[in-house]
Design brief:
Blueprint: E1 3-11, E2 16-17, E3 22-27, E4 30-36, E5 42-50, E6 53-60, E7 69-75, E8 78-81, E9 84-87, E10 90-93
Parallel strand pairs: 1-8, 1-9
Antiparallel strand pairs: 1-2, 1-5, 3-4, 3-6, 6-7, 9-10
């Protein structure tokens, strides 16, 4: 039983994908994966073959206010897609498909 994770970041303030955003995945304080969003704001495969359990997903978005956005997520078996929507002064996330 393993999990995989993908993500994308949308700059809703500009109405376009957020390119070049650093994203890190950690477990128990240890980084297990990292990547940077492409021109479409996506990281198609941030990590795969992950053991089920809790992880921290950290984004470094293009915002003058949010320097780092961390999400605590619980992965089980299967694929997870966790997007971040960010503007200069707001952000939101959800479990995508």
């Amino acid at each position: 039983m393993t999990a995989s994770l993908s993500t994308h970041v949308l700059d809703t303030g500009r109405g376009e994908p957020a390119r070049g955003v650093r994203v890190e995945l950690s477990r128990d304080g240890e980084q297990v994966a990292a990547g940077t969003t492409n021109d479409d704001g996506r990281i198609g495969e941030l990590a795969r073959d992950l053991e089920p359990g809790p992880y921290t997903l950290a984004f470094h978005p293009p915002s003058p206010f949010f320097l780092r956005v961390e999400l605590e997520i619980a992965l089980e078996e299967g694929h997870y897609h966790v997007p971040l929507l960010v503007s200069p002064y707001s952000c939101a996330s959800y479990r995508g498909s």
